[in-house]
Specification:
It comes from Halomicrobium mukohataei. The chain is an alpha/beta fold and about 300 residues long. The protein has helices at about 5-10, 15-25, 55-65, 85-90, 105-115, 140-155, 175-180, 180-185, 190-195, 200-220, 260-265, 295-305, and strands at about 50, 70-75, 95-105, 120-125, 160-165, 230-235, 240-245, 250-255, 265-275. It has a seven-stranded mixed beta sheet with strand order 2-9-6-1-5-3-4. A two-stranded antiparallel ribbon has the order 7-8.
Length: about 300
Amino acid sequence: MYSLSQLRRAFSTPRLILREVNRLYHTRFRQWEYNQRGINFFEEDWDNLLILDACRYDAFERKMRDRNFPGHLESRVSQGSATPEFLKSNIDGLDLTDTVYVTGTTMVYREQILNGDLDVKFHAVDDVWGDSIEYGEWGVLPKTMAARTRKAVETYPNKRIVTHFIQPHIPFIGPTGEKYESELGTSPWKSKVRGELDLSDDILWQAYMENLDLVLNEVTELIHELPGKTVITADHGQLIGDRGFPIPIKDYGHPTALYYDELVKVPWHVSQNGDRKRVTKGNEATVYSEESTSELDEKAKKHLEQLGYL
């Protein structure tokens, strides 16, 4: 069922009605809760998993041509076309006490604490956004995420490490993003869908690729340092004026339950540095018992708003 507010938004923006028709097609008229053609990334074999939020496979492949990355590039199909869907389908109900989650996005906190929709046991979670929002109220820079990853590896040598970078997801923090900051606002994809943003797709692509460069600069150093088997991937991709299916409307962002290649085909770059880790399970940490305060809740909500989710 659709809420009254959803219906109002749809009728004010007819493109959303067509998007919903495509969504019904991709979910088999809502029989699928997630993309059943995808795989569970947390059941794959890795010691370190570097997640680049909203990174398209084709964009990553293009950037790899100019970088001397060790290892080899493959692709995988994600179970979600947005982060909440990715998390729900990959980690809900799992015992991941062999894993430490380092994150610049508030999504795990939102889904587990604010919404109560996620049940997962990590050994530890480092909510970097909780104390290191550096780009105004926009988010966490790649260099800070890389530094916290190094700290996690040192602190938890026998745990799998997941690092969830914000970039190339908005906000656009490269030169193009700074140049058009006032026009882009906090929700450029929503504004583009509603016809309120006049910037061309070429400019949006340039801003997106600059974000990807910024995070890859840090990842390039990390993969030479991280011990064991490291995989670079993404939770989902990104639409930047791509045509949908079966109704070929131009679309933007990463709406849930739309399983276009641009949204669910993601990089899976594999490299290995030295011996594999001796990973062990441990006790579940009291991850949020002390952190779950009204102050942190408000910070999480503000961060989600600035990322365009609220």
